[in-house]
Design a protein that fits this description.
Number of strands: 19
Shape: globular
Number of helices: 7
Largest sheet: 7 strands, mixed
Order of helices and strands: HEEEEHEHEEEEEHEHEEEEEHEHEE
Number of domains: 1
Distance between the termini: 53 Å
Helix content: 10-25%
């Protein structure tokens, strides 16, 4: 393994051994308008919400074994993992050109990471799959189904993307429930993990508020500079929300190419001196900007129930958009994770967009939600037709005062043959 590859695998590819985990913890309290001037920080009033009883339910018929159309969660701390690669405990790739071995290794590693967080495959809410082909995605679904009980049905989103490790054919990240009570974001890794000691394997999002920050791109000439500037812009918004770096739960980094993860990692680590770098995922996108980063942040809540299930925030000096919000703030209550949606039949861009939104409008009422209560969207497109029609048609579906926080990424595929649009969505209940 050359030095460059080793540097990538230190954080992105670290894996847990199944025993010997002595915890190392850190508990700390493309489609967009021009970003404009950030202006002076304007803290948003803290949301308030009462405690809720833990509950989870699955909605809609499964597209395939081991998955469902939506999962509704409330009252549970949520584990957000880093991107898991098919590496052994020494950081070596398992199964060179052997996709089945790589899938099994990723699932083994994911199991270990979740278990170290007090979670497990039996508590999965969302699974994101990054793979070389739709066939690999389908096989991964089958192998996951062999490991979980029939009543465990996470929502699954798939993206076709090269990975930070060149020979890797598949990677995953996940969200799962855990028990216990914590008031602050917990970042953790294990001594048994073969990787960078400054990188967390997972973060625990406490019960209560969360803020979703839209992807922020930067067109600087290098990945390192673009990462630094994108993070700086996002951190300004975090400060305007009255929060700081200790509240960051997860980062998704769109980068080209994926194998430029080394400078991205180095820059991210400088943002979190003397603490673990939060879990993050690398997705290769096709864009003029070398880097875009989206962020999930914990927003503590106190007091009595807020009348609004979600509020939308535009920073000072930034032009509002009718199709995406800079930030969606959820005080508490039900979060609705919706499966990665692709059209039910092949078609042109308009047909795919309309079919996906038709599916959304069928799913959301089952969870007592609607299009006005969407909080986070990641749109994956793999051709110009789908991208253009998505831009053109979103105003038809969204309340211009209440669009979700969002990122749009042109990728190599959306995990299903003959489809060029996939949507990963989170919503909240109407009350």
């Amino acid at each position: 393994m050359n030095a460059r590859l080793f540097a990538v695998t230190l954080c992105l590819g670290c894996v847990l051994a199944f025993t010997g985990c002595s915890g190392v913890q850190d508990q700390t309290g493309n489609d967009r308008e021009p970003s404009g001037a950030a202006g002076q920080p304007q803290p948003v009033s803290p949301p308030v919400a009462p405690p809720v009883a833990p509950a989870i339910r699955h909605l809609g018929a499964a597209d395939s074994p081991g998955s469902t159309r939506a999962v509704v969660v409330e009252g549970y701390p949520l584990v957000h993992t880093r991107q898991i690669l098919p590496l052994d405990s020494k950081g070596q790739l398992v199964g060179q050109e052997a996709v089945e071995k790589q899938i099994e290794q990723v699932l083994d590693n994911l199991t270990a990471v979740l278990q170290s967080a007090g979670s497990g495959l039996d508590r999965l809410v969302r699974l994101n799959v990054y793979a070389d082909s739709p066939e690999t995605v389908a096989l991964a679904r089958e192998r996951l189904n062999e490991r979980i009980q029939a009543e465990v049905r996470p929502v699954i989103t798939a993206v076709q993307s090269p990975l930070p490790l060149p020979a890797a054919l598949i990677a995953m990240d996940a969200v799962g429930t855990t028990d216990g009570k914590t008031e602050t974001v917990t970042l953790q890794r294990c001594e048994a993990v073969a990787g960078d000691p400054d990188c967390a394997d997972f973060a625990v999002l406490p019960v209560g508020g969360v803020a979703y920050l839209s992807g922020h791109p930067d067109k600087s000439p290098t990945a390192a500079e673009a990462t630094a500037k994108s993070m700086n812009a996002l951190l300004q918004i975090v400060e305007q929300l009255g929060l700081d770096r200790s509240h960051i739960v997860h980062l998704k980094v769109f980068v080209q190419p994926a194998q430029s993860a080394d400078p991205v990692l180095r820059e991210l680590k400088t943002v979190f001196p003397q603490r673990l770098t939060p879990p993050f995922t690398i997705v290769e996108w096709i864009a003029s900007a070398p880097v875009e980063i989206e962020m999930i942040v914990h927003r503590p809540v106190t007091g009595e129930a807020n009348a609004e299930a979600v509020s939308y925030y535009t920073p000072p000096g930034v032009k509002p958009s009718p199709t995406f919000s800079r930030v969606a703030v959820v005080p508490a209550g039900r979060q609705i994770y919706i499966a990665g949606l692709t059209s039910r039949a092949a078609g042109d861009g308009e047909a795919q967009v309309r079919d996906v939104f038709d599916q959304l409008q069928q799913i959301l009422p089952e969870a007592d939600s609607d299009l006005r209560h969407l909080v986070k969207a990641t749109y994956y497109v793999s051709d110009d037709d789908a991208s253009t029609k998505l831009n053109d048609l979103r105003p038809e579906f969204y309340d211009p005062q209440r669009p979700p926080a969002a990122s749009k990424a042109t990728v190599h595929g959306v995990g299903v043959a003959d489809r060029t649009l996939g949507i990963d969505m989170i919503a909240v209940g109407k009350k």
